[in-house]
Amino acid sequence: MKKVLIFGSTGSIGRNALKVIGKAKGQFKVIGLSANRDIDTLNRQIAEFRPSFVCLNDRSQAEKLKSRLPKGLEVFSGESGLLEFASLESDISLMAISGISCLRPLLKNIKHTKRIALANKESLVTAGSLVFEEAKKQKTEILPVDSEINALFQLFETNKSLTNGNLNRVYLTASGGALAGCKHKDLSKVTVGRVLAHPTWKMGPRITVDSATLVNKGFEVIETHFFFNLAYEKIDILIHRESMIHALIEETDGTLFACLYPPDMKTPISFALHYPDRKKGNCKVNFKNSFSCNFRPIRYSDYPLLKVTLDAAKRNDNSLVILNACDEVAISNFLKGKIKFTDIGKVITKVLEKYPAHQIKNINDVLGWDNWARIKAEELIDKL
Amino acid sequence: MKKVLIFGSTGSIGRNALKVIGKAKGQFKVIGLSANRDIDTLNRQIAEFRPSFVCLNDRSQAEKLKSRLPKGLEVFSGESGLLEFASLESDISLMAISGISCLRPLLKNIKHTKRIALANKESLVTAGSLVFEEAKKQKTEILPVDSEINALFQLFETNKSLTNGNLNRVYLTASGGALAGCKHKDLSKVTVGRVLAHPTWKMGPRITVDSATLVNKGFEVIETHFFFNLAYEKIDILIHRESMIHALIEETDGTLFACLYPPDMKTPISFALHYPDRKKGNCKVNFKNSFSCNFRPIRYSDYPLLKVTLDAAKRNDNSLVILNACDEVAISNFLKGKIKFTDIGKVITKVLEKYPAHQIKNINDVLGWDNWARIKAEELIDKL
User: Fold this and answer.
1) β-pairing, B90-95 with B141-144?
2) How many CB pairs under 8 A join A and B?
């Protein structure tokens, strides 16, 4: 049985991962679960999977949980506790903590596991080089859980075009998010509820808002760049509302290979956990019904923040750290009803207009600039 | 420069192959061209490609051609001439003769070439085992030109599911042919012109009629069976009007891989000639425009001859030889206006109702039963 640590077990990816593990009787032993503060869900997960270790980010919730738990189960808490939790030895670690707070536990955990199933995007967006350098040094495998990157991984797993010079370009598909078709003038009035109603994927709130601005797709372009060492010029985006085809690769002779599965995260999670085996029981395309796959070119003018994200990526300095921090802060404020949807873009572009450009050399650079940008973003939001 | 023989150079595939070769300056030397009787087209091809050998099936046309040609060019004619032509040594032979008349030259040529780029279906439908046994014995590579089988070949070239047990099934796509949506009661009245107006592919007349009855798709299922040694139960058909995705493979975990290119035969021909290289310059999917790929399950009741073809395939006796012969004879009569579209099915099912079932052991069995069925079919047509 493979020992598994789940970082972010009560979120959307974590819950789906536990469903996949629950089905794969006798193949995985969940040794640890980490969560932010949802002790009710965590408690149910503990009862079902009987881990030896749990970790809660929220210290007061951790105290509450401790009083309820059987003895012999070790509870970590807070940021330092999460780093201790990340030092536990595992065969596979699922990294499904949202945001940049995943970065330190990820870099720590790379030393203590054989495989990272990586669902977190922000760690690659802010520190892609550092993460892959560390993984290489520690000989730790990183498998992408994000469906588009997972699809590319599956395509490139066997296709030789990455190494034989026959790759023309790759296409990531984008549903267009919850606001596709919404008029520019109406964007300032859209409600949180509307933004969170994603047409195809059920995901956490941060990523769902990022899907509406397509910052999320920009992040996936960056993930693709780091995962496959691909130049940004070779990565394109296609609007594909149905989210059936997740990625395509185009060979020099014009032939395309596509990877398809229904929009259900259990499929890429199952792939990342079972690889190189494939397990039955995932949601399948039902060919007994008719279905359509529609594609259209992306209009960058509809998604100004996507362009901002891709421009920042190409600068290869601290701008992605700053962009991500502003995005996290602004979305958090939008979800609390403090700012309008269009203010997310305002905050990001305003902070990125004037920032001291610096190279990112280590994790302290990342966290320092993250902190700098958060303060700037909060200041701006207070003045809005 | 690779020495190339083209069998069927004046047909649709042959002409496209010469376009591909014409573009690939300095890579191929066309040493021989064979045609049925179209000496005007052949003459132009001779002037452009300057082969050393030509072959015409029609002996009187061959005599006409000889009088026009420069000395030093050897002209073969008739069936025996074609077998001599097939004994010429080449690096690659494109087999694009239509119908069962390709079988003997193919079996002969396997001994004299390194690679067959196979566009002919009937040789595999009537003698798939014999063809692949001979290719194995002679260590001759056979690459599929037919777009669906070519797409599967490209998918399986690297995907390991054929050997590692992870293959669930394969899907061949079908446009549905020129008569999709035509009501049953109107089928007896459809004109040759309407049947030949294929929605997506420009092809020769025989295959275009076979595309309307979907006998062609049945033939592709049989090709798939022989090319990849796949059980018939693992091969499905999907209606996909746009002919962009040519085939899909489904892994046991539900993930699908698809191969796409625009419906232009130059792409699979170029693949089969250049393999393992890939050459630029083919028609590409234009992602600057929107496009849709629609899929629906096939209704077998709409295509009774497809069911007849698949049933015959599974009997593993001489029934496919008989079916193909009746189909060739009936289509030839339909194209001449002698019988109605619906008579094609009548002829095939009538002959297949009562036939002496025999195993096919060698090429003489194939040609014997082919001849037997042709006589039966002609008799039936005379009585219609």
Assistant:
1) unpaired
2) 138
- The token duo for A18 is 């536990």
Tell me which H or E stretch contains A205: helix A205-213
Q: Nearest-CA distance from B238 to chain A in Å? A: 8
0.90 surpassed by complex ipTM = yes
Classified by CATH at the fold level, domain B2-145 comes out as Rossmann fold (3.40.50)
Q: Is B374 helix (H, G, I), strand (E, B) or coil?
A: helix
- Please give the class, per CATH, of domain A316-384: mainly alpha
Superfamily per CATH, domain A2-144: NAD(P)-binding Rossmann-like Domain (3.40.50.720)
Mutant choice from B152, B250, B257 vs A, greatest count of A C-beta within 10 A: B257
Task: Report CA torsion sign: B280, B22, B175, B288.
Answer: positive
Percent of chain A predicted with pLDDT > 70: 100
Choose from A147, A171, A240, A253 for mutation: most chain B CBs within 10 A: A253
Q: Domain coordinates of chain A in residue numbers?
A: 2-144, 147-314, 316-384
Asked whether this chain's domains A2-144 and A316-384 adopt the same fold, the reply is no
Tell me if A260 and B256 make a contact (CB, 8 A cut-off): yes
DSSP lists the bridge partners of residue B75 as B54
Q: Where are the beta strands (DSSP E) in A17-166?
A: 28-35, 53-56, 74-77, 90-95, 113-118, 141-144
Residues from chain A contacting residue B238 (CB–CB below 8 Å): 287
> pLDDT tens digits, residue range A163-205?
788 899 999 999 988 888 888 888 888 899 888 888 788 888 8
All residues of chain A having their beta carbon less than 8 Å from the beta carbon of residue B278 are 166, 251-253, 255
